[in-house]
Amino acid sequence: MKLSDQILTANHNLFRNKTRTILTIIAIFIGSFTIVMSSALNAGVNAFIDKQVESIGGDGFIEVFPAAMYDQLAGMMGSGSSKVTEYNPNEGSAITATISKSDLKKMQEVDGVKVLEMFHFLAPEWMTSNNTDKKYSVSLEYFPDSEFTVDLSAGRMTDNNSDENEIIINQNWLEPLGFSSPEDAVGKEVTVAVKETAKCYEDEDNCLETLTGTIVGVQAPGVLTMDGDLHVNKAFDAAIYDISVRNLPKEATKRNDITAVGEVDPEKMSEIREKFRELGFESITIDDAVGMIRTFLDVMVIILDVFGGIALLAAVIGIVNTLFMSVQERTREIGLMKAMGMSNSGVFLSFSLEAILLGFWGSAFGIAASMLIGFFANKIATDTFLADFPTLSLTKFEPLTMLTITAVIMLIAFVAGTLPARRAAKKNPIDALRYE
Q1: Residue 272 within any structural domain of the chain
Q2: Which of 52, 183, 380, 408 is deepest in the core (most CB within 10 A)?
Q3: Residue 296 has pLDDT above 80, yes or no
């Protein structure tokens, strides 16, 4: 008998007792559905996070700051060490610790560092546009030339070689600034007001200076998007910073030198961070930023997989019971097949195919149902609570993963059906024919 004929016969025999077979398939369906959905959720969210990481330059991005600031601020928030440490004048305190030019040079010379520059915290008084008479609080940030990018809805990245003031806003700013869409905002100007700190000591009501900048891009929403921080190019950064520190004593301007950002070789990230630590500086990477998200997601996936495993365990018991009952009911039939020349291996294969088909139908229905629900879940999520993340697909069904899950469940079903199939194969044909 051909294998295709054996499969058709096994499928026919399987559904002789429809109720028992369907109940067993439902048990497999629940387990496969849970595992497939957890896998799809994991794939969907991780794909979004990976895209976010890739969009900002990948795993090479690094932010560096004095270790004293990290240790002491962590301690004040209750997450640092309770150990009493001796004061080190070379490190200073959380308030006085800075990155000097010599410190920056030492870090720039570490093997694997591609670019590392001082980062200025820019906090102008307000920002507005010609489309509104309202003014809004804003913070701005500049990143050095590297592979650093942001995921854009429209426009381009800022040009650090340009003498023109350029800025990238995010989509939360479109409506406040009076723009109808990301495309509408690109090419328009914004006005930023900056305080000349030294002048404010003499005349607080007359120390603001305004600058204009051109919107060159609009950042798409994402898990790594900071709603308040907008990106500016080097020219805009320098213009704002120069106004804010104008006429201040040199020592006072050093208080701003507490952070450096840049790009390093991802393959040497661990060694570079350790070298920075030896120099008295801590660092943050993209992995640190998304680590908590991935950890939470992994825990949720494990929990769902546990429930799926429990359901599959119940399904295994159902498969064994279904096939044992089938062997019992078809004893005389087995004897007749053997009397007509069917070998023990043929009988074993017949019942094994029934077990495999139980696994196939259960997993197939589970995958189909999960994909259907996943499709509607994605649509509902995009229109409601994930509206701010249009590029996020809540579930992602990968063909190879679906095939793997189906194959594993069919293998589990085959193993579960081995014992009943062996019992059927070992039956004596004479005894089987006499069975009432």
Answers
A1: no
A2: 52
A3: no
